[in-house]
Design a protein that fits this description.
Elements lengths: L12 E7 L7 E7 L2 H18 L3 E5 L8 H37 L1
Helix pairs in contact: 1-2
Length: 107
């Protein structure tokens, strides 16, 4: 069998972030695996999501914005955060419905 002519892409950066319980306006963030081209984007995304969900998050990012404008990068970040937060809010609503149904069934 012949070797593939395509090279494998690097994993990207993987970041852990959590809300700072002593300062509600801050987050604590730790890169777990870094790739310079995606570390900043992964870190910003993780910090935003940890702050908005008030929960610890892991963010993996292999997006490479080299050759993109700042506006394109910010639009991408905005879309990612909006999409994740929509899914998060749907999950939260579903959990509340399930909890209320359980408490009604038990009572």
């Amino acid at each position: 069998m012949g070797e593939s002519s395509t090279s494998s892409k690097p994993m990207g950066s993987f970041v852990y972030a959590m809300p700072d319980r002593t300062n509600p306006k801050s987050t604590i963030c730790t890169p777990l695996y870094t790739l310079p081209s995606s570390l900043d984007y992964a870190t910003r995304t993780a910090r935003i999501l940890a702050h908005r969900t008030n929960m610890p998050v892991y963010v993996g990012c292999s997006v490479d914005f080299s050759g993109s404008t700042v506006e394109e990068e910010m639009e991408g970040l905005k879309k990612v955060v909006e999409t994740v937060m929509e899914k998060w809010q749907e999950k939260e609503k579903q959990q509340k419905v399930e909890e209320s149904m359980q408490s009604t069934t038990i009572a």
